[in-house]
Amino acid sequence: MKTLTTTEELQAFCDAAAQHPYVTVDTEFLRERTYYSKLCLIQLAFAGDGENDAVLVDPLAEGISLEPLYALFRDENVVKVFHAARQDLEIFWVDASVFPKPLFDTQVAAMVCGFGEQAGYETLVRKIVKQGLDKTSRFTDWSRRPLSEAQKTYALADVTHLRKIYEFLAAELEKSGRSHWVAEELQVLTDPATYDIQPQEAWQRVKTRTNSGKFLAVVRELAAFREIYAQSNNVPRNRVFKDDALVELASTKPRTAAELGGSRLLLREARKGAIAEGILEAVAKGVSCPPEKFPRLDRSREKLQVNPALADLLRVLLKAKTEAEGVAAKLIAPSADLDAIAAGLRDVPALSGWRREVFGADALRLCEGKIGLAANGQAVQVVEL
Question: Residues in domain HRDC (predicted)?
Fold first, then answer.
C-alpha cells in the first residue's frame, strides 16, 4: 500500500480521483491532549481494484500541503463519501475553512435505508460487503512514526470497503426516491455554525441544579473563560478545570487566591498562574452582572402540558411508520419531540421536510382527531375517521 508524503504525490492522486464519480475519505486523529483534533492520517480511495486506487496520506510529513485535497473537496463533480463525517469535517473546516461538496455520509444513508440507529462501519462492512474487519489497531497512537503494516492495513480498510457500501446505499436511495432525505440531513454537517463554538454560549453545556440568575451568571463567565483559555492554548477544556469544579466555583464564588485554594475539586495546576487569575476575574464579572443581563435557562418544554395518551399514540404511530418505511425511529423523532407535539408545539423537526412525508403529516392528523390507529394482527394501521 502506498503512503503519500509529498504535495506532488497528493496532487497526482487527486488529479486521478477527479476523473471518477466519487472518492471515499477517512481520517485518523488524536484529541485526548488537545482542544483541536490533531490530524495524523488521511485515507483516500476511488472506484477500482488497482494498487494506486487507494492510498494513505501523511499530513505530518515535512513540507506536505493538503491544498490538492482541498481542491478536490471543492470539485462538485466528485462526490466525497465519509462514514460518520462530523469529526472529519470539523478538522478540515478548522484547518482550511473548506467543506467537501457534494457530501455523502454512509451512516446517515444507512439509517434512512433501514440499518438501524447509528449504524457502525463494522456492521455495514459485515452486512453489505460480507467481510469482517480486523480492529486490533483501533486504539493506537496515530501520531507516531513509522506506522506499522498492521496500522496501515487497518486504516486503508476504512475507505476500500466504503466504496461498495456507498455504491449499495446510493443505489438503494435512488430506487426508493429517498436521496433528498439524506441531502437534507447533511445540510447541518456543512453549516459553519455546527463547528463554531461561542465561548459566551459554552455555559449551556454545563449541567446545574439551579436556575438562579446570579449563579448562572458566574457559570457563564467561568465557562467562557475556560473555553477561551482552552482554545488559545489548544488543551482540552477539562484540563483547565472540569464541570464539577466549575459548578463548585460558581457556588463558593472565591474572591482571593486564598479562597480559591480552598476548592475541593479544582486541579492543582488551576490554583495558580493564568488559570487562577482568569477564574477570579470570571467570578468577579459574574457576581457584578446586573439582573437584566442574567442568563436564562430554556425551561419552556418543562412547562408543557403533555397529553400522555396522545403521546403514547404518537409513539405507536412512529413505530408503525418506521417499521413500514424501514427508517430508524431516532432519525425521525426522539421521545422529547413526541411529547412536544402532544403538548401542542408545532416547531418540531418531525413536522417538516422529509420527516413530514413519513410521519409528521399523519402525526398532525392524529392530534386533530382525523385518523385513528387499529391493530391488524402484528401490524398497526392508520384508520380514517
Answer: 212-293
251 contacts 210 by C-beta, under 8 angstroms: no
Determine the Cα–Cα distance for residues 188 and 193; give it in Å rounded to an integer.
Answer: 8
What pLDDT is attached to residue 117?
Answer: 81
CB-based burial of residue 375 (10 Å sphere; 0-12 exposed, 13-18 middle, 19+ buried)? exposed
CATH number of 301-384: 1.10.150
**pTM for this predicted structure:** 0.89
Taking the C-alpha atoms of residue 140 and residue 162, their distance in angstroms, rounded to an integer, is 21
CATH topology for the 199-293 domain: DNA polymerase; domain 1 (1.10.150)
Residue 197 has pLDDT above 80, yes or no: yes
Asked if the model's pLDDT at residue 250 lies above 80, the reply is yes
Q: Give 287's contacts (C-beta < 8 A, 6+ positions apart).
A: 214, 217, 218, 253
